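Request: Show me your protein:
***
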Amino acid sequence: MRRGKVGPMLKRLVSELRIMLYPNTSLHLKESSQSTLKDIMATSHQVEASHLVMVSLTSTAPYLKLIKTPHGPTITYRIEQFTLAQDVGKAQAKKTLLQPDYKAPPLLVTVGITHQWTELVLKSLFPGLEVEKVKLSRCHRVVLAYEQDGILHIRHYFVRRRLAHLSRSLKKLTRKELPNLNSYNDVGEWMLQNMTGSDSEAEYAEAPEHHTQVSIRVVEIGPRLDLRLYKVQDGVCTGAVTFHSYIQKTKKEARLLGRNLREQDELKVERRKRQREAIEGKISKLGETRKKRKLMRLLGQQKK
């Protein structure tokens, strides 16, 4: 989702990120500029969302936040650069469209990620793979996340499978679109005319009995993301900053900050407790019908 005012390119990026994470995300989520973080967290609790991905724009750069609900952590990245899927397809001879018709989530592959929080949140963002139960027919996409020179690169690929050891004419028959056979007497005549493989290729096409070999081809479909880790917070956009790319704290300063945050949390809990006791004391003086209605309304406002 997007937070605040963003340009048309970032809006398109948000839409493509939803398709990349599909079917474990909502494709048609409508954000409101008046929604607060509390409203978003309440809605995510109702729909049982495990993560929030927020894209925002400041005067310096766009940012992407990965939030693990409901208690954090929050990882903020600076978007160094990104490429939309339509631009990725323009650089390919045969482009594959990014379409929200995938029935299974993508597989995650991580390489060389040094920060622990980044790896944990990424692995929790994508569902785990059970090797014993997985069906290869449902594995259509791969998300590659690798780190190089402090930059987290994210790439999205589509996996194509074709039967190996087949000539080009036979491969055409295995595709969804069948060839036009109107000018041929039978399939054999079409195969003889379109046979382009050599004798060695035809001999190589003989596979052992009861074994099927499949050739795999990986095609990038986008979007591309190059992210730099900015900061890590313990809570949901709040809490102690355990990592910051520009501010370095000593151990003494970190302990002092942690103690202050714990004291603030304790004061907040105590204040809510006193407010609840005051509300219940006032409602106890009302009648039964009015008491119940008043209690539900006030306590509902207090939770917000």
The chain has three domains: 2-135+224-244, 165-206, 251-303. DSSP finds nine helices and ten strands in the chain.
